[in-house]
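User: Hi! I'm a student and our assignment asks us to look at how structure tokens line up with a sequence. Could you show me two examples?

Assistant: Happy to help. In each example below, the sequence comes first and the structure tokens follow. Example one:
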Amino acid sequence: MKRFASVLMVMVLLMSAIFMACSSSEEGTAKEGDTVKVLYTGTLDDGTVFDSSELHGGDPLEFTIGQGQLLPAFEQAVIGLSINQSTNVSIPADEAYGPYNEEMIITVDWSQFEEGFVPEVGEKLYMRDTSGQVVEVTVLDVSEAGVVVDANHPLAGEDLTFEITLVEIVPPPTPTPSPTPTPTGTPDSP
């Protein structure tokens, strides 16, 4: 009797896992909490492509909707899409990487660099801000006074447009049932 109950419990767990996986794919539309794969192209107002799946080898971008891995408006644009359905979303600068801030152009004293290191204009460097967080900066000028860097995000002040195509809703992992001990020598054993 106990063996039958154990087998029945395992079957119920497996059936519920299969039902959850099927119901997610039967629904066929992306929703909050789903892990999805998308192809995308990001452009600026002048049509310049600043990022795309193609620039990353053509592989789809995988993320979980609502976990804050990407710009919120990008994640929200995927909600409700079906497999192979596309959408366009325009994200104003304030909702993307914020406005361009002139105060984020700073001169770094030479004492902050290793001796003999001379960066080039346009070079990307990684520096720590006042809170200790590592930020990418772009070298604007090099002089005896120091190195002028821009700590704004490269897309600060830019309105962004994305064309997004949903290519897959990744099924949730199937729960692995824990092994059930097999009773031996119990009075209920056949």
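Example two works the same way, sequence first and then tokens:
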Amino acid sequence: MKKWELKIAPGFDPKTQKQIGLFSAQLDDQLSRLKKELKGLTVKQLEWQLKPGMNTIGMLLAHFAIAEVWWILIASKELPWETKGKQKLIKVCGLEDDGIPLATDGLHPKYLKGFSLDKYLKILNKSRRAVRKELKTWRDRDLNKFYTVDKMQATPASTIYHVLEHFCGHFGQILLLKHLLRDAKLLK
């Protein structure tokens, strides 16, 4: 009989980081699944839009990196955006924007034009390494302590949940875009 299990990610202490380590493993599993789904996509496919105003797969890939870094490395540390936050994002992602949300007539952003799948994956991998490094400093006992972000209070537990559900939601959007690419005869 085949076994399917998910254990806490390597490098996390099962005594003090069981929940955080499991979250990290879940996020890494989703990224691994995403990479399999993306295999072979061309620049043209990454930039394709069903119509203006709709996200492209490339935009969503940049968005994954930016959102994870923003929530885990900037918001949860209460870094002010205009000074330290923006600098941190650019340092880790090499980007400061993903084009999301687009205007109703918006097109794939010029600053993402020509990005290959390999380039997006390098950005994603770099941001995930930075996120994982930060998460290794977190402890389960602190998951319900509040911090302030944008006139709202959040906890590390709600933050890591949001990062995972955000990734899964946009992963589903990418799968839909692939289906629409096939319908448009732009993907086999």
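Here is something you could point out in your write-up. The chain has one domain: 37-183.
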